[in-house]
Design a protein that fits this description.
The radius of gyration is 23 Å and the shape is globular. The protein has 15 helices and 13 strands. It folds into 2 domains: 5-133, 3-Layer(aba) Sandwich (Rossmann fold); 148-386, Rossmann fold (3-Layer(aba) Sandwich). The chain has 410 residues and is α/β, with parallel strands linked by helices. The structure holds adenosine-5'-triphosphate and magnesium ion. Adenosine-5'-triphosphate binds at residues 154, 157-163, 186, 191, 272, 323-324, 348, 350-352, 355-356, 359, 374.
């Protein structure tokens, strides 16, 4: 039936192909369009059958799954690849994603995991295609966007700011289709490049600010941005701490003002202290995601921060994010809320396995492990802060809205 999800199975082991064919045969909305036993055959079959989804084994003798995926993304761009691999081939995950795979399944997987992945990838691709159709046609020159600036801040280090900033930015782009810029605002010891496995020479805030101060055209910002395969643009922190001195508070504000004109969302991973530069970022931000954990030092600092924030007039834009919310170390969320006199707005679970695995591979977990609870929590956070649905996790309040139209280009 034409309205079923058409799947091409690619694996060099005949038993695996048969097994997968049988598993999918039970699903009323999925049809196996064909099978292939090698990368070359996969390309040939996919060009002919135009499947929606290609289940691709990563290890095959002639052309491996990664090389085949790379070629397929040019030859049959409408087919979405779901890569299959055995545990221990972790480096392949990053390479698969870079090659264009949409999902990664670790063998052995259950039939539920398999069919859920196929359905999710399929509906995501359909959604994307719908958006592409809507946005086709003659485009006026890009109008300034006045994007939302989301500062991810905490008055204490090591609580998960970078983890949240990176995954939030990628989720806003990959799940919500937003035009996202991520800025590493930890100018001395920025970690964003590591989490995204990015490496760029002479492209950082420290190189950009002096250029703008020398009177260069605002368009020059573009040449300092690094593109990530998820579709987000990144402005990295300087490669060495002493270069942070080149970054002035006025310079950062200028950069953020320019970036927001070209993005729907600008996420800034802030440093864990107050100085003029950080205050400049918080000043400009529309939303300050303030991250805390269930540790007494974190809670004490949050209380102090909230007092300062009130004096500075930031209270209305603060959203409290409790990271590693399920860690049970004797402090309950209700106690924290009582102690700081405010409700937690969003929670993110602790998942050392998914988070550290993603960190060490340089692939955000919202891409490599989107089924995990921690990814789902980030998706909810993204939808609440930058989505159009205006959902609010805890109490139905809406996130702060700017008076201007944020998404005018849609
Ligand atoms: N939800 C989570 N579950 C498990 N581990 C987490 C989670 N969030 C963060 N971590 C881990 O906690 C550590 C600190 O996270 P991260 O680097 O994002 O924090 P940070 O606030 O940016 O720290 P820094 O002050 O060094 O900039 C990392 O090892 C990270 O993998
Ligand atoms: Mg950090």
């Amino acid at each position: 039936m034409a309205d079923r999800i058409q799947v091409l199975i690619v694996d060099d082991i005949p038993e695996t192909r048969d097994h997968l064919t049988k598993l999918l045969g039970f699903e009323p909305d999925i049809a196996v369009a064909g099978t292939a036993s090698s990368g070359a055959e996969a390309i040939e079959q996919a060009s002919r059958l135009l499947p929606d989804i290609i289940l691709m084994d990563i290890n095959m003798p002639d052309m491996d799954g990664i090389a085949a995926t790379e070629r397929l993304s040019a030859r049959v761009p409408t087919a979405a690849v779901v890569m299959m691999s055995v545990q221990g081939e972790a480096d392949y995950l990053r390479r698969s994603m870079l090659a264009g795979a949409r999902e990664f399944l670790v063998k052995p997987f259950s039939s539920d995991e398999l069919t859920a992945s196929i359905r999710q990838v399929y509906s995501r691709e359909k959604e994307k295609a719908g958006r592409a159709v809507v946005s086709q046609g003659p485009r006026a020159p890009e109008a300034p966007q006045n994007g939302l600036i989301v500062a991810v801040f905490s008055p204490k280090g090591g609580v998960g700011r970078t983890t949240i900033a990176v995954n939030l930015a990628v989720a806003a782009a990959s799940e919500l289709g937003k035009k996202v810029t991520l800025v590493d605002g930890s100018f001395q010891f920025g970690d964003v490049a590591v989490l995204l496995n990015l490496n760029a020479k002479d492209k950082s805030m420290a190189e950009l600010v002096p250029e703008l101060e020398a009177g260069r055209d605002p368009e020059t910002v573009d040449t300092f941005m690094v593109n990530h395969s998820s579709g987000i643009r990144v402005l990295l922190a300087p490669p060495s701490p002493e270069m942070a001195e080149l970054i002035t508070p006025a310079g950062v504000k200028h950069v953020l003002e320019i970036l927001r004109q070209h993005s729907e969302v600008v996420v800034v991973d802030c440093a864990a202290w107050f100085n003029d530069t950080m205050l400049g970022v918080l000043d400009l931000a529309d939303v300050v995601l303030t991250v805390l954990t269930l540790e007494i030092t974190s809670i004490k600092n949050i209380r102090l921060f909230l007092e300062v924030a009130e004096q500075l007039g930031y209270s209305h834009k603060i959203r409290l994010v409790l990271n590693r919310a399920d860690t049970t170390l004797g402090i309950r969320v209700a106690d924290v809320e009582h102690s700081i006199g405010r409700k937690v707005d969003h929670t993110i679970v602790s998942d050392g396995r998914a988070v550290v695995y993603a960190l060490n591979r340089g692939v955000p977990f919202v891409l490599s492990n989107r089924e995990s609870q921690v990814s789902q929590d980030v998706f909810r956070l993204a939808a609440s802060i930058v989505g159009n649905g205006d959902t609010h996790e805890e109490d139905g309040r809406k996130p702060p809205q700017k008076g201007k139209s944020l998404f005018a280009w849609r």
